[in-house]
Design brief:
This protein is mainly α. The chain contains 1 helix and no strands.
């Protein structure tokens, strides 16, 4: 039960990071493409 609980905790953390990464990357590339960086 303890190991399963720890695995679930890491799975949730990884899922949250993946969702944030998946949401931030398209917006970040859009800003970079819209605003020219000199």
């Amino acid at each position: 039960m303890g190991t399963f609980g720890g695995y679930t905790r890491w799975a949730v953390v990884f899922l949250i990071i993946f969702v944030l990464f998946f949401l931030l990357v398209p917006s970040y590339t859009t800003v970079c493409n819209t605003v020219p960086v000199n």
